[in-house]
Amino acid sequence: MPVLDARIVFGVILGTGVGGGLVIDRQVWTGLNRIAGVWGHNPLPWASENECASSHACYCGKRGCVETWLSGLGLVREFVSRGGPKSTAGDIANAAESGDERAHQLLAAYKGRLARALAGVVNIVDPDIVVLGGGLSNIASLYDDLVERIGAYTFSDGVSTKVVRALHGDSSGVRGAAWLWPHQASEARHPEK
Q1: In sequence order, what E strands does the chain have?
Q2: 3-189 falls under which CATH superfamily?
Q3: pLDDT above 90 covers what percent of the chain?
Q4: Sign of the C-alpha dihedral computed for residues 172, 124, 75 and 112 taken in this order
């Protein structure tokens, strides 16, 4: 299903932080409190005992938020805690592709956490498609069997939700902001329209 044909789209940013947004019938849905789509500051669903014991403080003041596990900073922190060298998320992905077992195991754990976190969204919103953006969305192996992993945690007999990489990858946010700029500038000059 192409994104433009989807009725409900959940957009995810996996980068320095973890963000999200919700589009329903081609309209951004902000919600009453203007926080619709904020999934990074919810607890990691179905956390293991080890994950609960090693949960990290989040800048929001809580512990164990999805963002602390799925952000690039969280990935690097966990790699270092497993004895890996201080790296970037891209370096870790490249190491996994090159056969580094520690990096490979970490990305498998990351993908499991991503699946659980997205399953929580699917259970509540039931989107037609999930679009991943941000730097971590460039890790090709994230998409391997991700929908099946999500399905293991959803309250459904099957999951038809598609998970795709943003068309312009980690540049999608910048492109979207640039696309909005002429519209916003026009409204500022002509508020009566």
Answers
A1: 8-14, 18-24, 27-28, 129-133, 162-165
A2: ATPase, nucleotide binding domain (3.30.420.40)
A3: 81
A4: negative
